[in-house]
C-alpha cells in the first residue's frame, strides 16, 4: 500500500463532494454514488501519484470509469427490476420510505432530469454528464472511455438531443404547460379551489390497473371527484415533476429517480378535460420523456 502524505489526503477530501455529485448524476442512486467514491478512494490510496499533475482530473477519470462499469452491469438487471420497483412504490404513499438524503439529492438534480438520464445508454450518460454538467473536455473523456474524441462528441450530442426532446406543437403549448404545473402545485398544497378552476366540469380521469393494484382500470368523472382524488395523492406529489411525455406537457412520478407513473392531460380550450394515469411497466417503457 502506498501511504499518501496528509496534503494529498486533504485534497481527496476536498474533492469528495464534487465526486459524489458527479457519481450521483451518473448513477441516480446515493448508495451507488457513495460506493463509486469509496472505490476511487481505494484506488487513490493504492496509487503512486508522484507523476499525477492534476489530481482532480485523475479522480474524475477514476470515478467515471467506475460509474460506467456500474451502468453497464445495471443493464442486465433492468427488465426484472422495473415491475418490482413500480408495484412497490405505488403500493405505499408514505414518503418516509425514501431516505431523506436521497430525496434531497434528487431534488437538487431534478426528478425529470434523473428519469431522462436513466433512459440514456451507459456511454451516452457518462459522456453527457461529464461534458455538459461538469465541463470535462472531450479529449479527456475519450481517454477515460477509450474512444475517439469524435465518438464521444457524438455520444454527448445524442444524449443532449434526448434530454432536450421536442417541444409540443399543439395549440397554446405554453398555456397547457402552465396548467399542468398549476395542477401539480395545487395538489402539493392541497388547494381544492385552485384544482377546480383548472378542471373542465366534465373532466374524466382514467388510471390503469397498475396504479391501484385492482384487476380493472379506474375511471372517475366530474371535477369534484377528480379534484378529491388528486388531493388524496398529495404525499406522492413530492416525487412528481413536470416533463414532456411524447412531446406533450405531463407529470411524471419518480421516487429515487426511477420512473413509476406518468400523468397525461387532455384539454378542451384551456381547461383540463382528461387525465390518463399510467403505471403499467410496459406502457412506461414505450413513452418518450424529455425535460419540460
UniProtKB/TrEMBL annotation:
SUPFAM superfamilies: NTF2-like (SSF54427), Sigma2 domain of RNA polymerase sigma factors (SSF88946), Sigma3 and sigma4 domains of RNA polymerase sigma factors (SSF88659). Pfam families: Sigma70_r2, Sigma70_r4_2. Residues 114-162 form the RNA polymerase sigma factor 70 region 4 type domain. The keyword Transcription regulation applies. Residues 12-75 form the RNA polymerase sigma-70 region domain. The keyword Transcription applies. Keywords: Sigma factor, Transcription, Transcription regulation. It comes from the Bacteria. PANTHER family: ECF RNA POLYMERASE SIGMA FACTOR SIGI-RELATED, SIGMA 19 FACTOR. Interacts transiently with the RNA polymerase catalytic core formed by RpoA, RpoB, RpoC and RpoZ (2 alpha, 1 beta, 1 beta' and 1 omega subunit) to form the RNA polymerase holoenzyme that can initiate transcription. Belongs to the sigma-70 factor family. ECF subfamily. This is Sigma-70 family RNA polymerase sigma factor.
Amino acid at each position: 500500500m502506498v501511504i499518501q502524505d496528509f496534503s494529498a489526503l486533504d485534497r481527496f477530501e476536498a474533492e469528495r463532494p464534487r465526486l459524489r455529485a458527479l457519481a450521483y448524476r451518473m448513477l441516480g442512486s446515493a448508495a451507488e454514488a457513495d460506493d463509486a467514491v469509496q472505490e476511487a478512494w481505494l484506488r487513490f490510496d493504492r496509487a503512486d501519484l508522484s507523476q499525477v499533475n492534476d489530481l482532480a482530473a485523475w479522480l474524475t477519470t477514476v470515478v467515471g470509469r467506475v460509474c460506467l462499469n456500474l451502468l453497464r452491469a445495471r443493464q442486465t438487471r433492468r427488465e426484472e427490476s422495473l415491475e418490482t420497483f413500480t408495484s412497490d412504490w405505488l403500493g405505499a404513499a408514505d414518503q418516509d420510505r425514501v431516505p431523506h438524503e436521497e430525496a434531497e439529492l434528487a431534488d437538487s438534480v431534478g426528478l425529470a432530469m434523473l428519469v431522462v438520464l436513466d433512459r440514456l445508454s451507459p456511454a451516452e450518460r457518462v459522456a453527457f454528464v461529464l461534458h455538459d454538467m461538469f465541463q470535462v473536455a472531450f479529449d479527456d473523456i475519450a481517454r477515460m472511455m477509450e474512444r475517439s474524441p469524435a465518438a464521444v462528441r457524438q455520444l454527448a450530442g445524442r444524449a443532449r438531443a434526448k434530454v432536450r426532446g421536442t417541444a409540443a406543437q399543439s395549440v397554446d403549448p405554453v398555456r397547457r404547460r402552465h396548467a399542468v404545473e398549476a395542477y401539480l402545485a395545487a395538489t402539493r398544497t392541497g388547494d381544492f379551489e385552485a384544482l377546480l378552476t383548472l378542471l373542465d366540469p366534465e373532466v374524466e380521469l382514467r388510471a390503469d390497473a397498475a396504479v391501484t393494484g385492482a384487476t380493472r382500470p379506474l375511471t372517475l368523472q366530474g371535477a369534484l371527484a377528480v379534484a378529491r382524488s388528486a388531493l388524496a395523492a398529495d404525499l406522492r406529489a413530492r416525487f412528481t415533476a413536470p416533463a414532456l411525455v411524447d412531446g406533450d406537457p405531463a407529470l411524471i412520478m419518480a421516487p429515487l429517480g426511477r420512473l413509476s407513473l406518468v400523468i397525461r392531460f387532455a384539454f378542451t380550450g384551456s381547461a383540463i378535460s382528461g387525465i390518463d394515469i399510467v403505471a403499467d411497466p410496459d406502457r412506461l417503457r414505450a413513452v418518450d420523456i424529455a425535460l419540460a
